[in-house]
């Protein structure tokens, strides 16, 4: 392999590594004092007809997040507010003002 080919290969590898890191970083976005990926820890506790109780990991997220800040996103999330209230109660977190 010539010097030109080696440089080209190194450049391509650097580009692929950079793109991979950018994609990994884009998967989780900090929002209202919590990473969006962490919100997934609470998904089972607010979906389905008979959701299970929230896990300790979910409660940690609920206690860490700025729930007032999340209000606009909660209303657009499609999650039934009646399922959020039990989650907050079981985690010992006060309901945000956006939940009736």
What's the SSE blueprint?
Layout: H1 3-26, E1 30-31, E2 34-35, H2 36-39, H3 56-64, H4 67-76, H5 81-91
Antiparallel strand pairs: 1-2
Helix pairs in contact: 3-5
Protein architecture, described:
This protein is mainly α and 100 residues long. 58% of the residues lie in helices and 4% in strands. The protein has helices at residues 3-26, 36-39, 56-64, 67-76, 81-91; strands at residues 30-31, 34-35. The protein has a two-stranded antiparallel sheet. Helix 3 (56-64) crosses helix 5 (81-91). It is elongated.
Summarize the structure.
This protein has five helices and two strands. The chain has 100 residues and is mainly alpha-helical.
Order of helices and strands: HEEHHHH
Instruction: State the distance separating the first and last CA atoms.
Output: 68 Å
Number of helices: 5
What is the CATH superfamily label?
Plant lipid-transfer and hydrophobic proteins
How many domain regions? 1
Judged by helices, strands and strand pairing, the structural class is: mainly alpha
């Amino acid at each position: 392999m010539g010097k030109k080919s080696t440089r080209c290969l190194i450049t391509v590898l650097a580009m692929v590594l950079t793109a991979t890191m950018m994609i990994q970083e884009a998967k989780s976005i900090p929002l209202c004092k919590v990473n969006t990926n962490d919100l997934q820890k609470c998904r089972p506790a607010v979906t389905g007809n008979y959701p299970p109780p929230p896990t300790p990991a979910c409660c940690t997220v609920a206690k860490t997040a700025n729930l007032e800040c999340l209000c606009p996103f909660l209303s657009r999330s499609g999650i039934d507010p009646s399922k959020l209230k039990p989650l907050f109660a079981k985690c010992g977190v006060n309901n945000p003002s956006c939940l009736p």
